[in-house]
Amino acid sequence: MYINGRAHGPWHQTTTCQLHMREYKDGDTIVVEPWRANSFPVIKDLVVDRAAFDRIIQAGGYVSVNTGNAVDANSLPIEKQKADESFAAASCIGCGACVAACPNASAMLFVSAKVSHLALLPQGDPERKIRAMSMVDQMDKEGFGSCTNIGACEAECPKGISLENIARLNREYLGAVFSSSKQEA
Ligand code: SF4
What we know:
This protein is mainly alpha-helical. About 40% of the residues lie in helices and about 5% in strands.
């Protein structure tokens, strides 16, 4: 929710539920509002419907897993830097503050975190191209706005999701579109 005009309130990288009342003084006025974005319709009071995010995840935020015994963890080495970047992207909690903070109501930070998390790992490779295209397609269908590099999303994100993920999503998406149009030609 919006607290005194800031997504999740005034603390850096802190969700509403981690914001302590002891930070406020007696007599302070606290204005609490729901997220404001057309793609998150208000259900009532402070409750918004964030199902648009769920539909974006359904469009491509998964990996194929063969049934059978679990694979030995050491059989698939992953570069430390990539594992760290993937883990950082995976820390997105889908709260929607990035959308609410963005003047365009863009969902690019959320989608880029979900695409990056899987694109950086070998497990995410089989659906890599279709994932980027399907999730961006669903994001557009849900009516989220375009990214114009304002950066309010990163500034207000309680999990510190970096704008670098948006750059990665753009590369993933353009690479997927380019290779699918080459295959069609
Ligand atoms: S990117 Fe940040 S602000 Fe956006 S949904 Fe994920 S955790 Fe919330």
